[in-house]
Each structure stands twice: as structure tokens, then as C-alpha cells.
Write a structure and sequence with these properties.
Strand content of chain A: under 5%
Distance between the termini of chain B: 44 Å
Low-confidence stretches of chain A: 230-246
CATH topology of chain A: MetI-like fold
Oligomer: heterodimer
Number of helices of chain A: 9
Number of helices of chain B: 11
Largest sheet of chain B: none
Number of domains of chain A: 1
Distance between the termini of chain A: 30 Å
Largest interface: A-B, 50 and 47 residues
CATH class of chain B: Mainly Alpha
CATH architecture of chain B: Orthogonal Bundle
Radius of gyration of chain B: 20 Å
Number of strands of chain A: 0
CATH architecture of chain A: Orthogonal Bundle
Radius of gyration of chain A: 21 Å
CATH superfamily of chain B: MetI-like
Number of domains of chain B: 1
């Protein structure tokens, strides 16, 4: 036990583990960058569609059911399926595109479901009032529904960030870099101290990202409430979306 | 990049075995998760102030990546079923606790009051009124936990456990798309099937909600 943690300390103290391609800074960057690109793509794909469906209030339930089925797709399977295909297409760097595809697929459900639910559940009386005041549909969406749905939408984005950062680890299975490399390589060489360090680094990264987003959201909430007086969202936003695959 | 139907035809035995393994890994995780979650939820319902720390703790567990959580326990339990189950159970807790507490909390105070007025003890109210009325929300939680766990179990092949993940992992190593597809499709099918079964169970256990369900 103590021996194990001594090995962990030795790994951390070795300057070779902090420099170059296999060093912690570079692996961290690979990890964060593939996750970031995946989140942006998923956001662009899911958010406008979800917000529009939520505003119209039709066809949304069907979409939510479809999205929930989508969740049954394991990320590990998606990476696996995408990998030989991206290899055949000659896409480089190795494993990057397969990882990206799986992460985009993972980020879509929480973003979509929360954005849809958030907009859809804005107090109907407020929307009516806005229309009665002569707002156009665009204005109703932009000035009333979106600001009120923002906390729920943000909760969905936060869930996506957590899941994508955590799951980017899996890229290492198909030859991509990122922090998962330590876990997979450490494993292959039976160097469990390296595996452990990899796991801790990913967990730390996720917790830091989560707390930062939570903090930013709380600040925005406070600023909002000071401006508008009260929140008009009914229902609890976070129960709407939980469930992780991968 | 075509599908090798011949391979599929000759590997039904292995798929069958993997299905059993996948079910056992999932079953243990969800059952154990439910037992532990009921304990936590009981504590949270009795001592309200413990709810925030409980959800905080299980929330932190939930943010740890699956691959990492699997690896944390390897130094202690090796590449074993225990290592896999600790991680799988950890993930199910938050969803289950939240739904149990939300379900029990969602029962109308007026109903509880009238049950008490009819002479039911606190225990009777809980077992015969609150719990049955909370069942739909609790089962909704079990459904999400089950579907997520079935997906997660594919990853346990990386720490030497069985299940459909074995096909995926082996397929990746051999660059054999058919095998990867088989593992993935079977996992999705099992998740959908489990979800449908649990939905049917929900309908069976809550006959009074039949009319409003449709």
C-alpha cells in the first residue's frame, strides 16, 4: 500500500513524465482540445434545433424519446465502429476522429434534452403576455424564453462537459493521446502507479471544469435575479437529465 | 469494410455467453446500487440536512470517469469483479437516490394526512401509501440507471471482465468491424429490451395510473 503510493510519488517526481509528447502538459492539452471541439460541434448541432422545437412545442416529445434511445449507444462501441472506418478513410492523427465522433454523440443528448425541456417549460402565461405585448415570435424566443431557460440549458451543457471530459479517456484505446494514454499504457505495462495518476488527473480535470461552470452559472444567476426579480422556471432542471453511457 | 455474416453465424455461442455475463454484471450493479441508494435515501428523508451532502458525495462519484474509477481500485482488488462493480454501483447511486427522494417527496401531503387520519401508523403510511405512489418515479430512476449501466459494462472488458465489451475490444485490436458492430448492437438491444421490461413492470405495479398514462 505505502509502497504503491511511493511509486506514484516517484512517477510524479520524474521530470521525463512532464516533458515532450508523452508529458502531462501535452496529454492534458490533447485531452482538453478533443473534448472542446466535440462540445462545440455538439452544441452547434443540438442547441438551435432543441430551442426551436421547444419554442414550437410540437414534435419535441418524439425527439426527446429518440434522444433517450440514442443514449443506449455505448461510447466504447461508437469509438470502436468509427475507428476502422476512419482508418480506411486515411484520416489522421490516429484515433482522433474516432474519439471525436464518439464524444460528439455523447454530448448531444444532455444538451438537446435540457435545451428542449428548458424552453418548453417556460411559464406559458409569460409567453402569452409577451405575445400580447406585441412581441414577434423571434422576440418571444430571444427576450423571454431563452433568458428564462438559460439555467436549465446551462445544466445540460455542464452535464455534457463532465461526460465528454471523462469519456475522452477512451480515445487511448484507439491510439489517440490524451490523459487516457496513461491509463491504457500503464495497464499494458502493469505500471499501476501510472494508471492511478492518469485516473486522478482526469478526475481532477472534470471536477475543476464542473466547479468552474457551476460557479460561473451561479454568478450569472445572481446577476439575472438582481435584474429581473424572480425565476419563472417550473420543475426541477437537473432531474430531467441524468444518465451516462461510456 | 463490409459485414462478415459468416463470422456472426459461427459465433452465436459466444454471444449467448457474453449476454449472460453482461446481464450478471448489470444485475449485480443495479441491485446493489438500489439497496445502497434506498439506505441513503432513507437517511436523507429522515434527516433532511443530510440530503445535500449525500447528493454532493454521490455527485462527485458520478463525475469520476469510468475508466479512471475502474483503475483506482485495481491496486486493492486487482482485475476482478469487485473492481468492476464498485465503479458500476458508484454511477447508479446519484440517479437512484435523487429519484427515490423526489418520488417520496412528490406524494401530496393531503393524501398522507388522510391516510394518517384513517388510522395508519407512520410505517403503514410509508409502506402502503408513500412508497406505492412514489414507484413510478423510482422505477424511472431504475430505468435510467439500468440503461446507463448496460452501456458502461462494455467498458469493463478493459479490466478483464466479460460481456459484450469483449467483442468491441477484440474487434478494435484486430481491426475487425463486424465484431465491434456485434458488441455494440447487442449492447443497445439489451438496453432497449431492459428499458421496455422495466416500463412494463412500472405499469404492472401502478395499475391506478393506467388511465392517465395514455
Amino acid at each position: 500500500m505505502i509502497e504503491f503510493f511511493r511509486e506514484v510519488a516517484a512517477w510524479l517526481g520524474d521530470p521525463a513524465n512532464w516533458a515532450g509528447r508523452g508529458g502531462v502538459p501535452n496529454r492534458m492539452w490533447e485531452h482538453v482540445s478533443v473534448a472542446g471541439v466535440a462540445l462545440v460541434i455538439a452544441g452547434v448541432a443540438a442547441l438551435p434545433a432543441a430551442v426551436t422545437l421547444g419554442h414550437r412545442g410540437r414534435g419535441g416529445m418524439l425527439a426527446v424519446t429518440g434522444v433517450n434511445l440514442w443514449r443506449a449507444l455505448p461510447s466504447f462501441g461508437i469509438v470502436g465502429i468509427a475507428f476502422p472506418i476512419t482508418l480506411a478513410l486515411g484520416l489522421r492523427p490516429l484515433g482522433y476522429w474516432a474519439t471525436l465522433v464518439a464524444l460528439v454523440a455523447l454530448a448531444l443528448p444532455p444538451m438537446f434534452v435540457n435545451a428542449y425541456t428548458g424552453v418548453h417549460h417556460v411559464d406559458a402565461a409569460l409567453v402569452e403576455a409577451a405575445r400580447g405585448m406585441g412581441m414577434s415570435e423571434r422576440q418571444v424566443l430571444g427576450w423571454v424564453e431563452l433568458p428564462l431557460a438559460l439555467p436549465v440549458i446551462m445544466a445540460g451543457i455542464r452535464t455534457a462537459v463532465v461526460e465528454v471530459l471523462a469519456t475522452a479517456t477512451i480515445g487511448a484505446v484507439v491510439g489517440f493521446g490524451g490523459l487516457g494514454r496513461y491509463i491504457i499504457d500503464g495497464f499494458a505495462q502493469r505500471k499501476f502507479e501510472e494508471v492511478f495518476v492518469g485516473g486522478v488527473l482526469v478526475a481532477l480535470l472534470v471536477i475543476v471544469a464542473e466547479s468552474t461552470l457551476r460557479w460561473a452559472q451561479r454568478r450569472a444567476d445572481v446577476a439575472n435575479r438582481e435584474r429581473s426579480g424572480r425565476s419563472a422556471i417550473s420543475g426541477s432542471p437537473e432531474v430531467a437529465d441524468l444518465g451516462r453511457v461510456g | 469494410m463490409t459485414i462478415d455474416w459468416g463470422w456472426i453465424g459461427t459465433h452465436f455461442d459466444e454471444m449467448w455467453t457474453a449476454t449472460g455475463e453482461h446481464l450478471v454484471l448489470t444485475g449485480i450493479a443495479v441491485t446493489l446500487g438500489l439497496v445502497i441508494a434506498l439506505g441513503f435515501a432513507g437517511v436523507a428523508l429522515r434527516w433532511r440536512r443530510s440530503y445535500a451532502p449525500i447528493t454532493w458525495f454521490t455527485g462527485v462519484l458520478y463525475t469520476i470517469p469510468s475508466l479512471a474509477l475502474f483503475t483506482f481500485f485495481i491496486p486493492f482488488f486487482g482485475l476482478s469483479l469487485i473492481t468492476a462493480e464498485i465503479a458500476l454501483v458508484s454511477y447508479s447511486l446519484l440517479i437512484l437516490i435523487r429519484n427515490i427522494v423526489a418520488g417520496i417527496d412528490g406524494v401530496e401531503p393531503a393524501i398522507i394526512e388522510s391516510a394518517t387520519g384513517m388510522g395508519l401508523t407512520r410505517r403503514g403510511v410509508f409502506l402502503r401509501v408513500q412508497l406505492p405512489l412514489a414507484l413510478p418515479v423510482i422505477i424511472a430512476g431504475i430505468r435510467i440507471a439500468t440503461v446507463s449501466t448496460i452501456g458502461l459494462v462494455t467498458v469493463t472488458s478493459l479490466i478483464g471482465q466479460g460481456g459484450y465489451g469483449v467483442f468491441i475490444l477484440r474487434g478494435i485490436r484486430r481491426q475487425f468491424l463486424t465484431e465491434i458492430l456485434v458488441g455494440t448492437v447487442l449492447s443497445v438491444a439489451l438496453a432497449v429490451l431492459a428499458d421496455l421490461l422495466l416500463a412494463a413492470l412500472e405499469r404492472l405495479t401502478t395499475p391506478w395510473s393506467q388511465s392517465e398514462a395514455k
